[in-house]
Amino acid sequence: MIGIIQAEYLKYKRTFMKWLIILVPLFFVILSVFPKIIIPDGYLRPWDLIIDLVYNWWSFIFIPIGFALFAVLVNSQEKRAGNYRTVKSCKVSPISIWIGKIIVMAIHSLFATFVLIVAVLISGMILASGNVPWLKIVIGAFTIWLTSLAIIPIQLFIASWSGIFGSMIMGILGFLIGVAEAPTKYWIYIPWSWPIRLMCPILGIHPNGISLENNSPLLSSSVIPIGIIVSVAAVIVFTFLTAKWFERREVR
Q1: Residue 230 in contact with residue 194, Cβ under 8 Å?
Q2: Which chain regions cross the lipid bilayer (predicted)?
Q3: What gap in Å lies between CA 78 and CA 1, rounded to an integer?
Q4: How far apart are CA 252 and CA 250, in angstroms?
Q5: C-alpha of 199 from chain center
Q6: Is the Cβ–Cβ distance between 221 and 201 less than 8 Å?
Q7: Mean pLDDT value across the chain
Q8: Rounded to 5 degrees, what are φ and ψ at 44?
Q9: Got the DSSP string for 176-221?
Q10: Rg of the chain over all Cα atoms, to the nearest angstrom
Q11: Rounded CA gap, 87 and 97, in Å?
Q12: 3-class SS at 158?
């Protein structure tokens, strides 16, 4: 499996994906700078505006749309390499190849998470003041990453099955449904809602970006372990199901 992961990683080493990992987190952080500049001092605690805006946007915009784009790039790169025709000609299991692709996408999203954390820290140290909320920054970023992993096999399946159009439509639908259902009791059934919903108690904000009142049920931290457990179980199940589909697919 290590060899497969290394081979998959090398495929994307000289592609646009590495720039996407760097530029997308920076874009979200830069977007948060402008409200910080125009909002009067004392309106929010020094670091809150930057962290809340970046992580809120990251969870409901980058996760669905960014993962859809990642899956398209992975699939298009494979098409240029022969449209999976080499799968049948090698001794490596198609399931192992599929799992390798999912792992590499997860690693790339993890790298993007590290870039996001660093960018938030740098921008906060320049624009904010006071103690750095390390726990909130690190836990928030990695919670989003962990609870979004189940979306990777879904998006990769859609991209491999129906191409760029299907993948981007799925990403847009995930964005709309994820935001709409995150504050409702149905969030647990929507993978795109998981990172958004867990940001409510971690950041103390509604998915619409408004600060939550102290008595809001969305502040309950009981959803955090539930969301993480469901996410880990889902990524295993979705990976297995899509890998079996990939094994049976007819190479065109």
Answers
A1: yes
A2: 20-39, 54-74, 95-128, 134-154, 161-180, 223-246
A3: 18
A4: 6
A5: 13
A6: yes
A7: 83
A8: -135, 160
A9: HHHHHHTTSTTGGG-GGGHHHHHHHHHH-B-TTSPBPPTT-GGG-T
A10: 19
A11: 8
A12: helix
Report the pLDDT value the prediction gives residue 130, as an integer from 0 to 100.
74
| 220 phi, psi to nearest 5 deg | -65, 125
User: How many Å apart are CA 86 and CA 92, to the nearest integer?
Assistant: 10
- The three-state secondary structure class of 211 is strand
CA distance linking residue 243 with residue 212, whole number of Å: 41
As given in the structure block, the two tokens for residue 146 are 């962990």
Nearest to 219 by CA among 239, 248, 198, 237: 198
pLDDT per residue over 9-27, tens digit each?
666 666 667 777 788 888 7
| One-letter identity of residue 114 | F
Side chain identity at residue 36, one-letter code = K
Helical residues (DSSP H) of 128-150, grouped into ranges: 134-148
Q: Are 152 and 191 in contact (CB under 8 A)?
A: no
Which range of 4-8, 97-101, 188-192 scores highest in mean pLDDT? It is 188-192
- In the prediction, which pLDDT does 234 show? 97
pLDDT digits (tens, 9 = 90+) for 159-170: 988 888 999 999
Amino acid making up residue 131: N
In single-letter form, the type of residue at position 239 comes to: T
- Region 45-73: mean pLDDT is 84
Residue with tokens 């904000």: 205
Exposed, middle or buried, 171 (CB in 10 Å: 0-12/13-18/19+)?
buried
Q: How far apart are CA 135 and CA 118, in angstroms?
A: 14
DSSP calls for 159-179: HHHHHHHHHHHHHHHHHHHHH
Cα–Cα distance between 231 and 225 in angstroms, integer? 10
DSSP result, 86-140: HHHHSSS-HHHHHHHHHHHHHHHHHHHHHHHHHHHHHHHHHH--SS--HHHHHHH
